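Milestone 3.1: sequence recovery, worked example.
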């Protein structure tokens, strides 16, 4: 299978599986426990149908929108994800450059393999930083100050990782950060020599946003489940959220909100945006899909706060359904991670091109000239 054979996100998944050692692929592809929530995240979009208008004169359309005060060419965010240089040696650089080419938001994680400063200098298009609150207050303060200096446009505070989810595929493979070569995984790495050579001989693996304060995950190998459970601050509460927001002083989102009560509290506090998200099904298996929760949250706080539907997005129609249900935009991680793993920057650009084409096609077939015309009357629930 080649990159030119990829015509949808599932095709990139197949190519990534072909090119990655199985422990690395399973880290991207896997989720918590029985992986029910991960599957439901995408399946949820099938519970609603689009209702098109015709004869709408759609020769000229506008796919752009405003997200967190910055114009985006598409109502789509490349959600922050960790460890990207493990999946392809180009890592976050490839994703950022592809996002800039298409004029969309992208983000990097606290556990990024490229520094805040480099991404800040690399692109001029909108970028967010996904903040994990560590027990080390100095580390938290350092990351916020570095984002301010690098002129990041927003911080997304992740609120659903108080402990690490039980990712059983990673437990079986022994996947860790940085990756270690074990007896159980050695054959898999040997069978993928291109990946192995890139990992061994290219730029040394690092977590440059953390390595001034912690060894775990940078020079000391640790599982992601253990890292979240041992390193992150389990005392985080709404008071701490308010302090972090004040320390940052810029556009601020909460990533991982799923309940109406939490959405209301965020809106009452004047927080700029919430990302309805279950961390790609990687934390609490059995939780609802973001799209299933979207309408309920929009009914409660719509108009008072920006709402981003994060997770399970694989199609332009999924973006359209999210907007019809009241979201400001949709976002996802695997939709570009599979493409990154498959072919680096060229893969991410092809994936974004496919998503862009699907959004344009959906708008024209729906009789929609502007993103704000995706309204509730264009959606019917099964």
């Amino acid at each position: 299978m080649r990159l030119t054979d990829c015509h949808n996100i599932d095709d990139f998944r197949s190519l990534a599986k072909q090119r990655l050692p199985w422990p690395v692929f399973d880290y991207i592809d896997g989720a918590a426990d029985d992986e029910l929530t991960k599957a439901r995240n995408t399946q949820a979009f099938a519970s609603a149908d689009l209702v098109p208008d015709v004869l709408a004169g759609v020769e000229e359309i506008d796919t752009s929108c405003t997200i967190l005060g910055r114009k985006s060419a598409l109502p789509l965010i490349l959600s922050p994800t960790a460890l990207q240089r493990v999946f392809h040696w180009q890592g976050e650089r490839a994703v950022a450059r592809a996002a800039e080419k298409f004029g969309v938001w992208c983000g990097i994680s606290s556990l990024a393999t490229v520094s805040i400063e480099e991404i800040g200098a690399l692109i001029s298009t909108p970028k967010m930083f996904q903040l994990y609150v560590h027990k080390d207050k100095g580390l938290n303060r350092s990351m916020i100050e570095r984002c301010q200096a690098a002129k990041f446009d927003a911080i997304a505070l992740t609120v659903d990782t108080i402990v690490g989810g039980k990712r059983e595929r990673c437990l079986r493979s022994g996947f860790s950060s940085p990756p270690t070569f074990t007896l159980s995984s050695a054959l898999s790495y040997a069978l993928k020599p291109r990946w192995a050579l890139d990992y061994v001989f290219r730029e040394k693996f690092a977590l440059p946003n953390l390595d001034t304060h912690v060894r775990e995950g940078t020079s000391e190998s640790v599982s992601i489940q253990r890292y979240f459970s041992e390193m992150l601050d389990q005392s985080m509460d709404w008071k701490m959220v308010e302090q972090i927001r004040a320390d940052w002083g810029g556009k601020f989102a909460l990533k991982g909100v799923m309940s109406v009560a939490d959405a209301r509290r965020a809106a009452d506090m004047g927080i700029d945006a919430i990302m309805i998200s279950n961390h790609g099904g990687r934390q609490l298996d059995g939780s609802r899909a973001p799209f299933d929760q979207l309408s309920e949250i929009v009914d409660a706080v719509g108009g008072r706060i920006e709402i981003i539907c994060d997770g399970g997005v694989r199609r332009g129609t999924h973006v359209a359904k999210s907007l019809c249900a009241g979201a400001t935009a949709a976002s996802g991680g695997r939709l570009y991670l599979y493409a990154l793993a498959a072919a680096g920057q060229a893969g991410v650009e092809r994936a974004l091109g496919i998503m862009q084409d699907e959004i344009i096609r959906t708008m024209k077939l729906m009789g929609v000239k502007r993103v704000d015309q995706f309204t509730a009357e264009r959606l019917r629930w099964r």
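The chain has 16 helices and twelve strands. The longest strand covers residues 251-257.
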